[in-house]
Amino acid sequence: MTLSRRQFTVGASALLGAGSLMGARAAYAARNNELNILCWEGYNSEQVLGRYRDMHPDATVRAESGTSDPDMINKLRAGEVRVWDLINVNQPWARSQLYPAGLIRPMDKDRFMPFFDKMLPEFADPYPLAFAENGDLLGMPQRYGPFSFVVNTDKISRETAEDEGWNLFFDEKMKGRFGLLTYDNWNIIHLAMASGLNPFQAIEGDDQLKFKKTAEYIFSNARLLTDDLVAMNTALINGEIDAYFTGGVYTASPARFDGLTNVRAITPNSGPVDGKGGCVWIELTSVVNNPNPSELAQDFLEFVQTPEIAHAVAFTEGTYNPVAQMGNEEVMARFTQDELDAIQMDSLAEDMAKSADYEVVTSYADLIDIYTQARRS
Asked: Is the pTM above the cut of 0.70?
């Protein structure tokens, strides 16, 4: 796997499922026999989409997998609200951009609110970013994961890594002993945190200089730069590096599922975002404001809440993630102990409590320029 779904700034996407987009654009008749989903990988897998097709043999069900939240949102802005029925992106976008722009529509609260009661405590309140300020339900949470950095606990203990947090990478002994997983948007968030800055507030003046110095230090002292999580985990396992900057349960999970549980995602004990040093991504799936809507859209959202499919969503596509539905005993019963170890269920609630919600980076345009210059040098 050389391209990550978490590398938000990449612009390419691949069409998956039967048929073509031209067919999807043309097929406005019988919309209740058609469903088009714009999503991160996983929902388009045979384990998920194939089973839904089996339930609806007379329907045409397609999915396109994106590699960038903004890329998927821009498709809707360009007029593809007439194509898509569901969009699956990370947590800040529904409330801050999709709903205000009229790109998604409110969901049936009578139908979907009961599902929150069976979610994990972090989501059962229910999760605030799933709602508009007026109380409209904008999307259903499912996959999520803490995302900070990863260590080999044979070399660096979990306790040391959590206590040191981002300062770990500034230890003289770590020069040339860490990798940088080059997921640009996440790198910017993490470089800001490592600079003692909140990436979700404006970073200007002297604070930009702090960010610049941190970026230059990390790039100049990293032994390995790659966007391939498999290559990064391999370097960690082989002893080439002891840790990697930017990573989480999502990136560590394949190695852990293979039994290499010394590969561990770390969430710092403290940091600059209201005292939190970690960050968490949470996917929301929303109903597109298609002028010719398909009834299958909300049916699919109900379908992925079921125990069998919630588990399939969590363990698909070679990387593994917790799902909000694990608060349901029937869902949890489907996970083996090895699967729970792979997604670090032992510390998941604790890591969530130490993580800020992923948000849009306020000074992204300035910071990406600084980041790019540091990477080139």
From this structure: yes
